[in-house]
Amino acid sequence: MSDAPCPAETGRPAAEAAKADRLRADVLVEALPYIKNYQGSTVVIKYGGHAMIDERLRDGFAQDVALLRLVGFKPVVVHGGGPQIDALLKRLNIDFRFVEGQRFTDEVTMEAVEMVLSGRVGQDIVSRITRAGAGAVGLTGKDAGLIKAARKRLSRPSLEADAPDEIVDIGLVGEPVAINVELIRHLSAGGFVPVISPVGADEAGTTYNINADAVAAAVAASLSAARLILLTDVTGVLDHEGRLIERLAEAQLNELKRAGHVTGGMLPKLDCCLTAVKGGCRAASIVDGREPHAVLLELFTDKGSGTEVTLA
């Protein structure tokens, strides 16, 4: 009796392999017009959330960024690192707290923030992108005055009737007021991927901890980027029935806010998107970073992978 496999046994793997090859070809064909449309354009990506913790997603993100650079895009990465900062502060037995959703940042906390963001986290991202095939350069907002910052002022309504709003002290927390775009453009023109940690300084040299979303929005606006992508731990903006809203114009967004359908941590992210598009960025997207290769799916597929915010 022959030990040779029957035709059905040999045919099925071959058919499945052929189908997989066709699917891969379809994906490449679908990506082609998007590659042509964005080639040579700047794409700013805010990297944060679960995508920075999961090992597989970290490598996948680096591959996405390297591919963008290699096909002619000019990616710029702005990264966060909140969980990593928390972990270091705990190891050092340094107490920390949040005020109105903002990390209270004193001088000791600021040292830890710089150690984590400008050191371990930033250099890990640079290393992974470089290993994936694209040269990356780590920057802080203090390098060549990349991010000019100012102290952020928070206020909340006073508990006393007719009294002025109460000023909230959040320490060395800043907001970006100007971006040195020439430094970024110089690196991008040289074929490098700038990887920016959200730490900036004012004219007096005081260092500030800055929200990474706000820095990414300021960078995207200053560069008139084609796209801003904020990687998050949520699917995107959902309607009142829990369905993903794939595209939001400013007027629609304002209506959702008035109706109370957009609340919590999504509000500042959407405000950052609006800041970017009002400042000259073509479009901004909130994308689920838990999805493997979310950046490529958002840029290179018809459906995308999150909620895109535009002016109209």
Please give the structural blueprint.
Elements: H1 7-38, E1 42-47, H2 55-70, E2 74-79, H3 82-91, E3 98-99, E4 102-103, H4 107-131, E5 136-140, E6 147-151, E7 154-156, E8 166-168, E9 173-179, H5 181-189, E10 193-197, E11 199-201, E12 207-210, H6 212-222, E13 227-232, E14 247-249, H7 250-259, H8 266-278, E15 283-288, H9 294-300, E16 306-310
Parallel strand pairs: 1-2, 1-13, 2-10, 5-10, 9-12, 13-15, 14-16
Antiparallel strand pairs: 3-4, 6-9, 7-8, 11-12, 15-16
Helix pairs in contact: 2-4, 3-4, 6-8
What is this structure, in a nutshell?
43% of the residues lie in helices and 23% in strands.
**For this structure, what is the CATH class?**
Alpha Beta
Q: Which structural class is indicated by helix and strand composition?
A: alpha/beta
What is the number of helical segments per DSSP (H or I, 4+ residues)?
9
- How many DSSP-defined strands? 16
Question: Which overall shape is indicated by the principal axes computed on the Cα atoms?
Answer: globular
CATH superfamily: Acetylglutamate kinase-like
Total number of domains:
1
Helical coverage, percent range: 40-55%
Q: How are the strands of the biggest sheet laid out side by side? A: 5-10-2-1-13-15-16-14
Enter the CATH topology name. Carbamate kinase
Q: Tell me about the largest β-sheet.
A: 8 strands, mixed
Oligomer: single chain
Structural commentary:
By secondary structure, this protein is an alpha/beta fold. It has a single domain, classed as Acetylglutamate kinase-like (Carbamate kinase, 3-Layer(aba) Sandwich). 43% of the residues lie in helices and 23% in strands. The protein has helices at residues 7-38, 55-70, 82-91, 107-131, 181-189, 212-222, 250-259, 266-278, 294-300; strands at residues 42-47, 74-79, 98-99, 102-103, 136-140, 147-151, 154-156, 166-168, 173-179, 193-197, 199-201, 207-210, 227-232, 247-249, 283-288, 306-310. The strands form 4 sheets. The protein has an 8-stranded mixed β-sheet, sandwiched between helices. Strand 11 (199-201) and strand 12 form a beta hairpin. Helix 2 (55-70) crosses helix 4 (107-131), helix 3 packs across helix 4 and helix 6 (212-222) packs parallel to helix 8 (266-278). The longest helix has 32 residues, at 7-38. It is globular and about 75 Å long. The mean pLDDT is 89.
